[in-house]
Amino acid sequence: xxxSWPPVLSTRARFRCAVRGARLARRIGxxxxxxxxxxxxxxxxxxxxxxWPGRAACMETSLGAVLAAALLGRRLTxxxxxxxxxxxxxxxxxxxxxxxxxxxxxxxxxxxxxxALTI
Length: 119
Fold this sequence. Notes:
Layout: H1 5-28, H2 35-49, H3 58-71, E1 77-83, E2 90-96, E3 117-118
Antiparallel strand pairs: 1-2, 1-3
């Protein structure tokens, strides 16, 4: 039972670093990002993530898009949510334009996610 503690702490530490990185990116990126540029940036991150041998799901790619925007001096918002109903529990993360909607997400059928954390 003692052996299971380090991975839990390791996961918590990695998430804490990701949140700190997103907060730093928010301070660095001051100028707004055009919607077309935001779509291209998210698409580029998704395309690059396909080549990564590890896990590259919505959390990693949305954080990558936020950090890439910060490197350009632009701002994207990182959003996380948890949906408990209907079962099963679903987690999702996405990049969002400040004052706009999700970037690179399918929203034609309606957006059913409620933001739990915005950075």
